[in-house]
Amino acid sequence: MSTSTIYGSRLAHQVPANRPPAPRRAAKLPTVVLLLGAAYCLLPILWVITAASKTNGQLFSSFTLAPGTALVDNVVDLSEYQGGVYWQWILNTALYAGVGAVLSTVVSGLTGYTLAKYRFPGRSAVFNVLLAGVLVPTVVLAIPQYLLLAKFQLTDTYWSVLLPSILSPYGIYLARIYAAAAIPDSLIEAARTDGAGEVRIVTSIATPAMVPGLVTVFLFQFVAIWNNFLLPFIMLTSDRKFPVTVGLYTLLNQGNTTPVLYTLVITGALLSILPLVVLFLTLQRYWRVDLLSGAVKG
């Protein structure tokens, strides 16, 4: 018997052929970093939930994360404050964020599709200008926007918050990138060959293919407008037109002289988060559908 045969038979006895591979050792450092990041994001939310359930006395005397028993009472007091002005602020915020995000999504989708699928002089220059607009902080534009709208006597109106929210350079950038990747040029050419007009192509082919990207643009813009503070703070003077961010800020300032309002501010902040949570849970299915459809395309 040869040496190689003897050596192979020994290996066969020492190493079972069907033994599963050794499990890979989990990377601990990334896991720890992710846990720290999750704690950093979730602890403030946990504090808001527990603080909203406390009375004003418990808020300053009890343990920070200890829950209280006054959540329902705080919600009732907040609803009754100045005739329910808080819910007026919520409705105003829903109007600003909902209408502004829808209009911004439409403008971003059409502009992004045009920049991705049409060839015209100056296209690259237009896209570069829009891309540069992504780098400009919105804080820098607030004062010029106020001066411009003041010329048209639109300050302290709903339009003063809606109009600046329609154009989103970042939304146009996302829509352009998504349209270039999700809509093949051959599909558009085939539709044109079959006699479809440009409007029909946009409504029947481009829009369904861009739904996950448009949902992403809508969510980003909705959250940005919902959390926007500086623009409505500059534009509006009537408290009945305030969004919830500016309204809670006014309550917080009044809390310096009336400490009982602190619990109302915290409760209002907690309630203002809930619509965003519901919106994300409702629209996330579009991302799942897009991932699944991409997995079966060949």
Topology readout:
Layout lengths: L2 H12 L13 H25 L3 H6 L9 H10 L4 H33 L5 H12 L3 H14 L7 H8 L2 H14 L2 H9 L4 H12 L1 H16 L3 H6 L8 H11 L6 H36 L2
Describe the protein in words.
The longest helix is centred in the last third of the chain and has 36 residues, at 261-296. Helix 9 packs antiparallel against helix 12 and helix 12 runs antiparallel to helix 15. The protein has 298 residues and is mostly helical. It has 15 helices and no strands. Mean pLDDT is 83; it is low at 291-298. The protein has helices at residues 3-14, 28-52, 56-61, 71-80, 85-117, 123-134, 138-151, 159-166, 169-182, 185-193, 198-209, 211-226, 230-235, 244-254, 261-296.
